[in-house]
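Sample entry copied in:
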Amino acid sequence: MYKKCEYNNSVLSESKLQKELDTHYRGETGLVVSIMRDMICEGVVKTRHELGVANEELWDLNEWPEGEGFGSSDRFCYENRIKKTVESERAYIKAEDELVAINKLDECPNVYTVRSFIDINKKLAEGLVA
């Protein structure tokens, strides 16, 4: 049966994630590192994969002009983007894992199948609530 890479998807302690940040994201600006560090401390980012996802959401901040201020509303916006993307990634990984377990797959299901499975589950949940 298909097994996902545990190295990137296993939950790590805050200190291990901070070490990953210090080791693998040295080229990022202080602003990017600061926001990523906060996301780790708040428990939003829990795996190496999620650390990478958070970094992708912040790439454009590496070009942020130094003379232009970065206020609390800007920070709030970027933190919300990270939270939504990480939540979406977790839902995707969970659905992928369920498809693999249910169907005893030998390879990773394709993206379309996983997205369809997520949509079906959402519709079922809405029907049960209504």
User: Anything to note?
Assistant: The chain has a mean pLDDT of 93. The longest helix spans residues 72-103. Helices lie at 6-9, 14-24, 30-41, 48-58, 72-103, 111-129.
